[in-house]
Request: fold
Amino acid sequence: MRRDSIFYKLFQQSPSLVFELLTNPPINAESYRFDSVAIKEPKFEIDGVFLPPENEGAGVVYFCEVQFQKDEQLYERVFAESSLYFYRNRARFSDWQAVIIYPSRSIEQTDIHPHRGFLNSNQVHRVYLDELGDIRQLPIWVALMVLTTVEEQLAPQEARYLLERSSVEQPETANSAIIELVTTIMVYKFEQLSRKEVEQMLGITLKETRVYREIKEEGREEGREAEARSLIGRQLTKRVGELPSQVRERIETLSLEQLENLGEALLDFTSMADLQAWLSAE
Reply:
Protein backbone atom coordinates (compact mmCIF):
# COMPACT_ATOMS: atom_id res chain seq x y z
CA MET A 1 0.00 0.00 0.00
CA ARG A 2 1.56 3.30 -1.13
CA ARG A 3 0.86 5.26 2.02
CA ASP A 4 3.47 7.95 1.32
CA SER A 5 1.42 9.40 -1.55
CA ILE A 6 -1.77 9.21 0.51
CA PHE A 7 -0.27 11.16 3.40
CA TYR A 8 1.26 13.63 0.96
CA LYS A 9 -2.23 14.30 -0.44
CA LEU A 10 -3.64 14.61 3.08
CA PHE A 11 -1.03 17.20 4.02
CA GLN A 12 -1.62 19.07 0.75
CA GLN A 13 -5.34 19.27 1.43
CA SER A 14 -4.93 20.16 5.11
CA PRO A 15 -1.48 21.64 5.91
CA SER A 16 -2.44 22.13 9.57
CA LEU A 17 -3.27 18.43 9.94
CA VAL A 18 0.09 17.47 11.45
CA PHE A 19 -0.44 20.01 14.24
CA GLU A 20 -3.67 18.28 15.28
CA LEU A 21 -1.42 15.44 16.44
CA LEU A 22 0.63 17.65 18.77
CA THR A 23 -0.12 18.59 22.37
CA ASN A 24 1.24 22.12 21.93
CA PRO A 25 0.82 23.21 18.30
CA PRO A 26 2.03 26.66 17.22
CA ILE A 27 -0.57 29.40 17.58
CA ASN A 28 -0.22 30.20 13.86
CA ALA A 29 -0.66 26.57 12.71
CA GLU A 30 -3.29 27.55 10.14
CA SER A 31 -0.73 29.79 8.39
CA TYR A 32 1.85 27.06 7.76
CA ARG A 33 2.33 25.67 4.26
CA PHE A 34 3.35 22.11 3.38
CA ASP A 35 6.28 21.34 1.08
CA SER A 36 8.85 18.67 0.28
CA VAL A 37 12.51 19.51 -0.16
CA ALA A 38 15.73 17.95 -1.43
CA ILE A 39 19.16 18.52 0.09
CA LYS A 40 22.20 17.79 -2.06
CA GLU A 41 25.82 16.94 -1.19
CA PRO A 42 24.95 14.36 0.03
CA LYS A 43 21.45 14.20 -1.39
CA PHE A 44 18.68 13.81 1.19
CA GLU A 45 14.96 13.75 0.46
CA ILE A 46 12.72 15.21 3.16
CA ASP A 47 9.17 14.08 2.47
CA GLY A 48 7.26 16.51 4.65
CA VAL A 49 8.29 20.00 5.70
CA PHE A 50 5.89 22.47 7.27
CA LEU A 51 7.10 26.02 6.71
CA PRO A 52 6.05 28.96 8.89
CA PRO A 53 4.60 32.05 7.21
CA GLU A 54 7.37 34.21 5.78
CA ASN A 55 5.71 37.48 6.75
CA GLU A 56 6.04 36.77 10.48
CA GLY A 57 9.83 36.65 10.70
CA ALA A 58 11.89 33.61 11.70
CA GLY A 59 9.60 30.82 12.87
CA VAL A 60 9.71 27.13 13.74
CA VAL A 61 10.06 24.63 10.87
CA TYR A 62 8.45 21.21 11.36
CA PHE A 63 9.77 18.05 9.69
CA CYS A 64 7.39 15.13 9.29
CA GLU A 65 8.19 11.49 8.54
CA VAL A 66 5.50 8.84 7.93
CA GLN A 67 7.02 5.41 8.63
CA PHE A 68 5.02 2.22 8.05
CA GLN A 69 7.95 -0.19 7.73
CA LYS A 70 10.72 -1.05 10.17
CA ASP A 71 13.86 1.00 9.55
CA GLU A 72 16.68 0.48 12.02
CA GLN A 73 18.41 3.69 10.97
CA LEU A 74 15.37 5.92 10.66
CA TYR A 75 16.37 8.33 13.43
CA GLU A 76 19.93 8.61 12.12
CA ARG A 77 18.54 9.69 8.74
CA VAL A 78 15.74 11.95 10.01
CA PHE A 79 17.96 13.85 12.43
CA ALA A 80 20.76 14.17 9.86
CA GLU A 81 18.37 15.53 7.20
CA SER A 82 16.61 17.87 9.61
CA SER A 83 19.83 19.24 11.11
CA LEU A 84 21.42 19.81 7.70
CA TYR A 85 18.35 21.56 6.30
CA PHE A 86 18.11 23.72 9.43
CA TYR A 87 21.83 24.55 9.19
CA ARG A 88 21.53 25.64 5.56
CA ASN A 89 18.44 27.74 6.24
CA ARG A 90 19.33 29.03 9.71
CA ALA A 91 18.45 32.64 8.92
CA ARG A 92 14.88 31.65 7.98
CA PHE A 93 14.00 29.69 11.14
CA SER A 94 14.26 30.21 14.89
CA ASP A 95 13.94 26.51 15.76
CA TRP A 96 13.02 23.07 14.38
CA GLN A 97 10.85 20.20 15.50
CA ALA A 98 10.21 16.73 14.08
CA VAL A 99 7.05 14.61 13.95
CA ILE A 100 7.36 10.88 13.23
CA ILE A 101 4.11 9.04 12.48
CA TYR A 102 3.96 5.27 12.99
CA PRO A 103 1.03 2.86 12.61
CA SER A 104 2.09 1.31 15.94
CA ARG A 105 5.01 1.15 18.37
CA SER A 106 6.15 -2.17 16.90
CA ILE A 107 7.42 -0.38 13.78
CA GLU A 108 9.71 1.97 15.69
CA GLN A 109 13.48 1.62 15.44
CA THR A 110 14.75 -0.86 18.05
CA ASP A 111 17.92 0.87 19.24
CA ILE A 112 16.93 4.39 20.24
CA HIS A 113 19.53 4.88 22.98
CA PRO A 114 21.88 7.06 20.87
CA HIS A 115 18.99 9.46 20.27
CA ARG A 116 17.64 9.63 23.83
CA GLY A 117 18.39 13.35 24.06
CA PHE A 118 16.08 14.20 21.14
CA LEU A 119 13.46 11.52 21.85
CA ASN A 120 13.06 12.51 25.51
CA SER A 121 12.73 16.20 24.68
CA ASN A 122 9.80 18.26 23.46
CA GLN A 123 11.57 18.73 20.10
CA VAL A 124 10.65 15.32 18.67
CA HIS A 125 7.07 14.02 18.65
CA ARG A 126 6.32 10.34 18.05
CA VAL A 127 2.72 9.59 16.99
CA TYR A 128 1.29 6.04 17.01
CA LEU A 129 -1.91 5.99 14.96
CA ASP A 130 -3.34 2.92 16.71
CA GLU A 131 -3.20 4.80 20.02
CA LEU A 132 -5.15 7.90 18.94
CA GLY A 133 -8.49 6.38 19.93
CA ASP A 134 -11.78 5.51 18.24
CA ILE A 135 -11.61 6.50 14.57
CA ARG A 136 -15.19 7.77 14.77
CA GLN A 137 -14.32 10.22 17.54
CA LEU A 138 -11.28 11.77 15.85
CA PRO A 139 -11.22 14.95 13.73
CA ILE A 140 -12.12 13.96 10.17
CA TRP A 141 -8.67 14.55 8.66
CA VAL A 142 -6.92 12.66 11.48
CA ALA A 143 -9.46 9.86 11.02
CA LEU A 144 -8.39 9.57 7.37
CA MET A 145 -4.83 8.94 8.55
CA VAL A 146 -6.04 6.22 10.91
CA LEU A 147 -8.15 4.65 8.12
CA THR A 148 -4.90 3.60 6.42
CA THR A 149 -4.21 1.29 9.39
CA VAL A 150 -7.67 -0.24 9.89
CA GLU A 151 -7.92 -4.00 9.25
CA GLU A 152 -9.54 -5.03 5.95
CA GLN A 153 -12.65 -6.55 7.52
CA LEU A 154 -13.45 -3.29 9.34
CA ALA A 155 -12.19 -0.81 6.75
CA PRO A 156 -15.29 -0.69 4.48
CA GLN A 157 -17.73 0.19 7.27
CA GLU A 158 -15.38 2.79 8.76
CA ALA A 159 -14.79 4.29 5.31
CA ARG A 160 -18.54 4.55 4.66
CA TYR A 161 -19.01 6.17 8.07
CA LEU A 162 -16.35 8.79 7.31
CA LEU A 163 -17.96 9.55 3.94
CA GLU A 164 -21.37 10.04 5.58
CA ARG A 165 -19.84 12.21 8.28
CA SER A 166 -17.91 14.28 5.74
CA SER A 167 -21.05 14.98 3.70
CA VAL A 168 -22.61 16.55 6.81
CA GLU A 169 -19.62 18.30 8.37
CA GLN A 170 -17.50 19.49 5.45
CA PRO A 171 -18.05 22.18 2.79
CA GLU A 172 -18.52 20.83 -0.73
CA THR A 173 -14.91 21.37 -1.85
CA ALA A 174 -13.45 19.60 1.19
CA ASN A 175 -16.04 16.83 0.92
CA SER A 176 -15.04 16.13 -2.69
CA ALA A 177 -11.40 15.90 -1.63
CA ILE A 178 -12.31 13.50 1.19
CA ILE A 179 -14.32 11.28 -1.20
CA GLU A 180 -11.25 11.05 -3.45
CA LEU A 181 -8.90 10.31 -0.54
CA VAL A 182 -11.13 7.65 1.01
CA THR A 183 -11.49 5.97 -2.38
CA THR A 184 -7.74 6.08 -2.94
CA ILE A 185 -7.01 4.62 0.49
CA MET A 186 -9.43 1.77 -0.13
CA VAL A 187 -8.06 1.09 -3.62
CA TYR A 188 -4.59 0.67 -2.11
CA LYS A 189 -5.94 -1.41 0.77
CA PHE A 190 -7.91 -3.74 -1.53
CA GLU A 191 -5.43 -4.10 -4.37
CA GLN A 192 -7.30 -7.08 -5.83
CA LEU A 193 -10.35 -4.91 -6.55
CA SER A 194 -10.79 -2.40 -9.35
CA ARG A 195 -11.59 1.22 -8.56
CA LYS A 196 -15.19 0.71 -9.69
CA GLU A 197 -15.53 -2.29 -7.36
CA VAL A 198 -14.19 -0.20 -4.49
CA GLU A 199 -16.68 2.56 -5.32
CA GLN A 200 -19.48 -0.02 -5.22
CA MET A 201 -18.19 -1.23 -1.84
CA LEU A 202 -18.37 2.33 -0.52
CA GLY A 203 -21.69 3.08 -2.19
CA ILE A 204 -20.30 6.03 -4.14
CA THR A 205 -19.24 6.94 -7.65
CA LEU A 206 -16.90 9.58 -8.97
CA LYS A 207 -19.96 11.06 -10.66
CA GLU A 208 -20.93 12.35 -7.21
CA THR A 209 -17.87 14.57 -6.98
CA ARG A 210 -18.01 18.31 -7.61
CA VAL A 211 -15.82 18.29 -10.72
CA TYR A 212 -17.93 15.72 -12.53
CA ARG A 213 -21.21 17.40 -11.50
CA GLU A 214 -20.00 20.78 -12.75
CA ILE A 215 -19.08 19.30 -16.10
CA LYS A 216 -22.44 17.58 -16.51
CA GLU A 217 -24.49 20.53 -15.23
CA GLU A 218 -22.70 23.07 -17.40
CA GLY A 219 -22.99 20.74 -20.38
CA ARG A 220 -26.75 20.41 -19.85
CA GLU A 221 -27.23 24.14 -19.36
CA GLU A 222 -25.28 25.17 -22.43
CA GLY A 223 -25.89 22.09 -24.55
CA ARG A 224 -22.54 22.45 -26.23
CA GLU A 225 -19.36 20.40 -26.08
CA ALA A 226 -17.34 23.63 -26.09
CA GLU A 227 -18.54 24.53 -22.60
CA ALA A 228 -17.63 21.12 -21.18
CA ARG A 229 -14.28 21.33 -22.97
CA SER A 230 -13.60 24.74 -21.44
CA LEU A 231 -14.44 23.50 -17.94
CA ILE A 232 -12.23 20.44 -18.38
CA GLY A 233 -9.38 22.77 -19.41
CA ARG A 234 -9.82 24.89 -16.28
CA GLN A 235 -9.92 21.84 -14.01
CA LEU A 236 -6.82 20.38 -15.66
CA THR A 237 -4.94 23.65 -15.22
CA LYS A 238 -5.76 23.59 -11.50
CA ARG A 239 -4.59 19.97 -11.27
CA VAL A 240 -1.40 19.86 -13.34
CA GLY A 241 -0.56 23.46 -14.26
CA GLU A 242 -0.71 25.44 -17.51
CA LEU A 243 -1.41 23.19 -20.49
CA PRO A 244 1.05 23.21 -23.43
CA SER A 245 -0.47 24.17 -26.78
CA GLN A 246 -0.14 20.63 -28.17
CA VAL A 247 -2.03 19.23 -25.19
CA ARG A 248 -4.82 21.79 -25.63
CA GLU A 249 -5.04 20.89 -29.31
CA ARG A 250 -5.33 17.21 -28.43
CA ILE A 251 -8.14 17.93 -25.96
CA GLU A 252 -9.97 19.89 -28.68
CA THR A 253 -10.26 16.66 -30.66
CA LEU A 254 -11.94 14.66 -27.86
CA SER A 255 -15.58 13.64 -28.17
CA LEU A 256 -18.14 14.46 -25.47
CA GLU A 257 -17.91 10.89 -24.16
CA GLN A 258 -14.12 11.16 -23.99
CA LEU A 259 -14.41 14.49 -22.19
CA GLU A 260 -16.69 12.89 -19.61
CA ASN A 261 -14.16 10.08 -19.15
CA LEU A 262 -11.38 12.63 -18.79
CA GLY A 263 -13.51 14.48 -16.23
CA GLU A 264 -13.46 11.33 -14.08
CA ALA A 265 -9.81 10.44 -14.75
CA LEU A 266 -8.40 13.88 -13.92
CA LEU A 267 -9.39 13.42 -10.29
CA ASP A 268 -6.39 11.09 -9.96
CA PHE A 269 -3.92 13.27 -11.89
CA THR A 270 -1.01 14.76 -9.94
CA SER A 271 1.26 15.81 -12.82
CA MET A 272 1.32 16.68 -16.51
CA ALA A 273 2.74 13.20 -17.15
CA ASP A 274 -0.52 11.64 -15.89
CA LEU A 275 -2.55 13.71 -18.37
CA GLN A 276 -0.23 12.92 -21.28
CA ALA A 277 -0.34 9.20 -20.45
CA TRP A 278 -4.16 9.31 -20.44
CA LEU A 279 -4.26 11.11 -23.79
CA SER A 280 -1.82 8.64 -25.30
CA ALA A 281 -4.04 5.76 -24.25
CA GLU A 282 -7.12 7.23 -25.94
